[in-house]
Specification:
Elements lengths: L5 E7 L15 H8 L9 H16 L7 E8 L11 E8 L5 E8 L6 H7 L10 H14 L10 E6 L4 E7 L5 H4 L2
Parallel strand pairs: 4-6
Antiparallel strand pairs: 1-3, 2-3, 5-6
Length: 182
């Protein structure tokens, strides 16, 4: 199977999980646990939307920024009088390419040396991009207490669609030294 192939997983809300095709990036049981779909569970739009976002985020944290996750319930009629119907839930993931960090640029650090900042960044050039690593890196930079509080809004993400690369531009705002002392 190619990296762009669609991975099809099937879980049922009223019977055991059935595997139609095994996913390459994640173990099937891990994807099902991410979705939080369980046998016998009542499935609604919010539940499906949360499951879709959790799976999409997991793929994005492995560099699959353009992963498409589709969760489709297939409702079956009630089996016996007075009983609820069941829904087979199929999860389709089109992983897309793995995007790697090509360049990490840091701006706004006039007094703090670049090396001090880069030591705290867990996301390294050449590795698959991970938003989770970037969020942890921002927390590490915030603990330096040399910059105004950093969030993902301070990180400009430039995606190169032609070549699967990401360039990051981290905007820092240094705090005046007198404000950093206790």
């Amino acid at each position: 199977m190619t990296a762009n192939a669609t991975r099809l997983l099937t879980a049922s809300c009223m019977c055991p999980v059935r595997i139609m095709m095994v996913a390459a990036s994640f173990a099937l049981l891990f994807l099902i646990s991410l979705s939080k779909l369980k046998a016998g569970q009542v499935v609604g739009e919010r539940t499906i939307a949360r499951a879709r976002e959790a799976i999409r985020r997991a793929y994005a944290d492995r560099g699959h920024l353009k992963a498409k996750v589709r969760i489709q319930p297939d409702f079956k009629s009630a089996l016996a009088e007075g009983r609820q119907g069941v829904a087979d839930v199929s999860i389709q993931v089109d992983e897309g390419d793995v995007f790697r960090l090509r360049r990490l640029e840091i701006i706004g650090n006039a007094k703090t040396r670049d090396q001090i900042v880069r030591r705290r960044v867990l996301q390294q050039e050449g590795e698959p991009y991970s938003q989770e690593l970037m969020e942890k890196s921002l927390n590490r930079l915030n603990r330096l207490r040399r910059f105004e509080k950093l969030t993902m809004a301070d990180v400009e993400i430039r995606v190169d669609e032609k070549d699967p690369f990401v360039d990051l531009l981290v905007h820092l705002k240094e705090i005046k030294r007198s404000q950093t002392r206790r």
